Amino acid sequence: MGEAGPERAAPDLAAIVVAFGERLRAAGLPVTPERSTRFAQAIALTGASRLRELYWAGRVTLLSGQEQLAAYDAVFAEVFKGELALPPAAQQAPVPSPRAHESGEEQPAGPAERSPRSAGGVAAAGELGADPGEEPQDQEAALAAASTTERLAVRDFADCTPEELAMMARLAEQLALVPPRRRSRRSHRHARAGRPDVRATLRAARRTGGDPVRLRRRRRGQRPRRVVLIADVSGSMAPYSRVYLHLMRGAVRAVHAESFVFATRLTRLTRLLGQGRPDAAYRAVARAATDWSGGTRIGEALETFLAEHGRRGVARGAIVVIVSDGWDVGDPEVVDRAMARLARLAHRIVWVNPRSARPGFEPLVAGLRAALPYVDQVVSGHSLRALDDVLAAISAPPG
After folding, report:
1. How far apart are alpha carbons 217 and 206 in whole angstroms?
2. Quick check: 201 and 212 in contact, CB under 8 A?
3. 160 assigned to some structural domain
4. How far is CA 110 from CA 89, 103, 106, 350, in A?
């Protein structure tokens, strides 16, 4: 049994996920970065605070077969309970202990080092997740992991480390975006509701000697509203641009949203973000958006959007989401004129300003002041939890 050191600090969620995935791969399990991302997402969504919850969150997201349970139980016991419990198959795929890993020596997997908790997958799950019988040390570790998850959920993207930002960006790509629905122009046959369909009724009457026995009806269906995402990628928005780029990719692939970025000029990314492989998509975006982290011209970018895309139907009746802090080096009157035209076309305009979450925030910059009269809702979207407000603003029903 390994003993925890006296200086037990609150663990970092990103570090735990990465270390746990590396230990599982060292044990011979096919744990990919995508599976580790799903594990982190499961912890963040469920708020796992007990070892049983951590155990099952990893088991359903990281494993792909029953034969992997023994090795998983051993690595889980080592990482989350400080035990060195190797499965019988560890002779082919040894799992080094933390001290042996630090010293560069490999510890043999002797019978005395094997814990009875790793003898079977189900039994180990029951042992590790026993709520009333958890040791204080394990309870403290689980609660510390939960508190780390809570901190990550509310931490500003600008204050995150590169590793945390990468994990949050992948989580943002998988957020569920549900746009509101609108009445479509096309109608379809309905058994009870809708207006009478005279033509269909008369055609059916031919089979009954010209007597319209049954009245046919039609009513207009519903379809989701188009979502348009326009993100500011200038230098002042650099801490947030990466996360929102992943959110835009998820929206493009999930609901066929239209995506644009701008700094000094507007660039359409819809086709580029819709590519199958994320790395290829982001490389194409880097080549297309040559003004990334440059200056900001909100008014000119919106006028370009309206001239080339908006009036041709992209913005008509759509939910338009503009992500920007409002800093603009151009003329505020151009912003006012473009926003007035956009408000006449769009169904609703949502402005996402990550700076608005700071205490004492006031819309003092000229670009933001010129745009606010035409905005239906302002949200911050500065953290993972604040992204829920962004999704709620997009999904809000009329009125």
Report:
1. 17
2. yes
3. no
4. 12, 19, 12, 61
3-state secondary structure of 332: helix
Q: In terms of residues, how long is the chain?
A: 399
Cα-based angle 122, 127, 131 (whole degrees, multiple of 5):
120
Determine the structural domain holding residue 384 and report its residue range. Answer: 227-395
Judgement on whether residues 191 and 271 belong to the same structural domain of the protein: no
Helix (H, G, I), strand (E, B) or coil at 232: strand
List residues bridging with 258 in a β-sheet.
228
- CATH code (residue 311): 3.40.50.410
Candidates 80, 52, 73; CA nearest to 138 is 80
Rounded to whole angstroms, the Cα distance separating 197 from 255 reads 32
Cα separation, 14 vs 41, in Å, equals 11
Residues 200, 272: one domain? no
Residues pairing with 232 in the sheet: 262
Tokens of 252: 């493009």
Say how far apart CA 296 and CA 353 lie, in whole Å. Answer: 14
Out of 135, 154, 173, pick the residue that ends a domain: 154
Say if residue 314 is exposed, middle or buried (CB neighbours under 10 Å; 0-12, 13-18, 19+). buried
In a domain? residue 164: no
CA dihedral 303, 308, 312, 313 (to 10 degrees): -70
Say what the pLDDT of residue 12 is. 63
State residue 149's pLDDT score.
53
Establish if 166 belongs to a structural domain: no
Read off the tokens for 317.
Answer: 């009746």
Task: Give first-to-last CA distance, the chain, whole Å.
Answer: 61
- Give me the pLDDT at residue 283, please: 83
CA distance 348 to 393: 9
Check if the beta carbon of residue 243 is closer than 8 Å to that of residue 157: yes
- φ, ψ of residue 267 in degrees (nearest 5): -130, 130
Residues (pLDDT < 70) of the chain are 1-12, 49, 81-152, 398-399
- Residue 22 in 3-state DSSP? helix
pTM: 0.60
